[in-house]
Amino acid sequence: MPKLKTKRAAAKRFRVTGTGKLKRNKAYKSHILTKKTTKRKRNLRKAAMTDKTNVKNMKKILPYM
Questions:
Q1: What is the C-alpha to C-alpha distance for residues 50 and 16, in angstroms, rounded to an integer?
Q2: Rounded mean pLDDT of the chain?
C-alpha cells in the first residue's frame, strides 16, 4: 500500500489534543468586525472541538495526525 498524503490545508487548521480529539479555530473573526458585538468576538477567540460527525472525514484527510 502506498503512503498517504496529508491535505496540507487541513493540517494547518487542525491540531490533535492529548486525548486524540481534533481542535479547531472558529470562523467569522477576520473582517467586518465593527458590526459584531464584543461578546461575540471574544467567544470566537476560543478554540473548539471538531464535531463528531466530521471526525471520520478528518481522519481520512489527516492520516498521520
A1: 10
A2: 94
Cα(36)–Cα(41) distance, rounded to whole angstroms?
7
Q: Which residues lie closer than 8 Å to 51 by C-beta, 6 or more apart? A: none
> Which residue type, as a one-letter code, is found at position 54?
N
Q: How confident is the model at residue 12 (pLDDT cuts 50, 70, 90)?
A: very high
H runs (alpha helix) in the chain: 8-13, 38-45, 55-61
Q: Which of 45, 56, 50, 4 is CA-nearest to residue 23?
A: 50
> Alpha-carbon distance 61 to 37, whole Å?
35
pTM of the model: 0.78
**What pLDDT was estimated at residue 65?**
85
**C-beta separation of 65 from 11 below 8 A:** yes
